[in-house]
UniProtKB/TrEMBL annotation:
Protein name: Type 4 fimbrial biogenesis protein PilE
Organism of provenance: Litoribrevibacter albus
Transmembrane segments: 12-33
GO terms classed as biological process: protein secretion by the type II secretion system; type IV pilus assembly
Source superkingdom: Bacteria
Entry-linked PROSITE patterns: PROKAR_NTER_METHYL
Keywords: Membrane, Methylation, Transmembrane, Transmembrane helix
GO cellular component terms listed in the entry, alphabetical order: type II protein secretion system complex
Pfam families: ComP_DUS, N_methyl
Length: 131
């Protein structure tokens, strides 16, 4: 009876091929993953802005004026929204009550290159491509 040499395990070449394939897949998938994350954060910010707009309508009914103070509206944003955007409400001095809610990306966050989001008292959302 003869004994055959049997090698178990993987060769260095096989391991390098697997590592290279994983690296290529990661390189291709990472930008799509980043876009997916950004879209989710943007959607959360938009949802928060719509909630602010709803509360502004309630505030107008109760106080006959809009507010520029976020805490007056009693709406809480998620951590991902707070970490990536700052929100402001501005009111025009026109005789007709109106407001503009602006979400500005934080310059050090993942959304820094995304640009501002706005929502006004008529429900006009800008930029349209981001909504």
């Amino acid at each position: 009876m003869s004994l055959k040499n049997s090698h178990q395990g993987f060769s260095l070449i096989e391991l390098l091929v697997v590592v290279a394939i994983i690296g290529i897949l990661g390189f291709v998938a990472y930008p799509s993953y980043q876009d997916f994350i950004k879209e989710g954060i943007r959607n959360s910010a938009q949802s928060y802005m719509l909630e602010l707009a709803s509360q502004e309508a309630n505030y107008l009914q109760d106080n006959r004026a809009y507010t520029t103070t976020l805490t007056d509206l009693n709406v809480t944003a998620s951590n991902e929204v707070i970490d990536n955007y700052t929100f402001t409400i501005s009111i025009s001095s026109n005789t007709v009550p109106n407001y503009l809610i602006t979400a500005t990306p934080i310059s050090t966050g993942i959304m820094a290159s995304d640009g501002n989001l706005t929502l006004n008292h008529l429900g006009v959302k800008a930029p349209a491509a981001k909504w």
